[in-house]
Amino acid sequence: MGKATLKHILQKFLAHVEEKERQRKSDNDVYQREFQSLKELTEALKCDLKYSSSEGLKGKFRIKIRCEDNIPIHIYRCQPKKE
């Protein structure tokens, strides 16, 4: 399978939102349940070493951390410049 294009990703996202809006007409809690499932997934991934963000919690990155829930996983983190 090839790399997904931005256009394809956005089309899937818009289709997902449209589906949620259709569901919301009969169920007002549809977004609340989806956000809860995303929260649960995030918590589960924090324990998975493949997706660990423990590197971002180290002291050398502390100055850049604004929100501990938004720390990139190690394989995507840039090393800060030494000053």
Give a short synopsis of this structure.
It is built from two helices and no strands. The chain is mainly alpha-helical. It is elongated.
Defining traits:
single chain, elongated, mainly alpha, 83 residues
Q: How would you characterize this protein structure?
A:
By secondary structure, this protein is mostly helical. The chain has two helices and no strands. It has helices spanning 6-24, 30-46.
Structural topology:
Elements: H1 6-24, H2 30-46
Globular, elongated, flat, extended or rod-shaped: what is the shape?
elongated
Largest sheet: none
Low-confidence stretches: none
Radius of gyration: 18 Å
Please tell me the overall pLDDT: 78
Oligomer designation:
single chain
Distance between the termini: 43 Å
Total number of beta strands:
0
